[in-house]
């Protein structure tokens, strides 16, 4: 039996995917809902022809003594409230993993939970919730690394105790999980992909793959990639962005049947993570006098 005890914040698609995968792999897994509605939460997992139902224990923060491993799968705009709700259960032996789209969350988490070991993760797993359950629509990778931005073992104050076993456990539950010292690089790549796919799928109300199969959307996709590439070349010059188009196309292909997280939010009438994704990049463009007319127009259309 694993040494780890997992708690998960967030019952959206990615939170549900992690919860059901960890519980199915036999790990001690508990959900922390925003409001404790019932002691157990049933998730109906659907992937191709495979389906199974998983019953997950739920606890309110008051019922938890101390948190061992916390996966934070809430939306970027819910992060502050979610972390505050569990802060008193986080100790100096807790490991907290942030899984938000966009940028700027690490700083917030560092200030709210200075005592814990903070990790950041980014995933290309495609998942969405519908009336019949949780659809695992595209298998992908999850990259995990230290939030403290130290990129080598030698220069890091980061302690590796338990990290290899933690990666192994996560990998057993929902492969592939890959440790990455330079997680910032992956975060920029994910930001770039979300900055293109998410607002476009929101505009056209389409699944990710339709951005490639529909000629009109595909032309628009390329114009948006051109604008985003200009911003990234300025904001993150240490990376090569010439293959951005290829990276976006690959993700759209791999998650073709997925409904982007932004479109899911819009359909549910919820707030989206677009400010943490698009506005973050638009601000960089504005501060550096980079002309991105297509992108600004797109953002204005979807952020009404
Ligand atoms: O991360 C995603 C999202 O929807 O937020 C992608 C990779 C675009 C998959 O849908």
From TrEMBL:
<dbReference type="InterPro" id="IPR013752">
    <property type="entry name" value="KPA_reductase"/>
</dbReference>
<comment type="similarity">
    <text>Belongs to the ketopantoate reductase family.</text>
</comment>
<dbReference type="GO" id="GO:0008677">
    <property type="term" value="F:2-dehydropantoate 2-reductase activity"/>
</dbReference>
<keyword id="KW-0560">Oxidoreductase</keyword>
<dbReference type="InterPro" id="IPR003710">
    <property type="entry name" value="ApbA"/>
</dbReference>
<keyword id="KW-0566">Pantothenate biosynthesis</keyword>
<keyword id="KW-0521">NADP</keyword>
<protein>
    <recommendedName>
        <fullName>2-dehydropantoate 2-reductase</fullName>
        <ecNumber>1.1.1.169</ecNumber>
    </recommendedName>
</protein>
<comment type="function">
    <text>Catalyzes the NADPH-dependent reduction of ketopantoate into pantoic acid.</text>
</comment>
<dbReference type="GO" id="GO:0015940">
    <property type="term" value="P:pantothenate biosynthetic process"/>
</dbReference>
<comment type="pathway">
    <text>Cofactor biosynthesis; (R)-pantothenate biosynthesis; (R)-pantoate from 3-methyl-2-oxobutanoate: step 2/2.</text>
</comment>
<feature type="domain" description="Ketopantoate reductase N-terminal">
    <location>
        <begin position="6"/>
        <end position="148"/>
    </location>
</feature>
<dbReference type="Pfam" id="PF08546">
    <property type="entry name" value="ApbA_C"/>
</dbReference>
<dbReference type="InterPro" id="IPR036291">
    <property type="entry name" value="NAD(P)-bd_dom_sf"/>
</dbReference>
<dbReference type="InterPro" id="IPR013332">
    <property type="entry name" value="KPR_N"/>
</dbReference>
<dbReference type="Pfam" id="PF02558">
    <property type="entry name" value="ApbA"/>
</dbReference>
<dbReference type="GO" id="GO:0050661">
    <property type="term" value="F:NADP binding"/>
</dbReference>
<feature type="domain" description="Ketopantoate reductase C-terminal">
    <location>
        <begin position="182"/>
        <end position="303"/>
    </location>
</feature>
<dbReference type="InterPro" id="IPR013328">
    <property type="entry name" value="6PGD_dom2"/>
</dbReference>
<dbReference type="GO" id="GO:0005737">
    <property type="term" value="C:cytoplasm"/>
</dbReference>
<dbReference type="InterPro" id="IPR008927">
    <property type="entry name" value="6-PGluconate_DH-like_C_sf"/>
</dbReference>
<dbReference type="InterPro" id="IPR050838">
    <property type="entry name" value="Ketopantoate_reductase"/>
</dbReference>
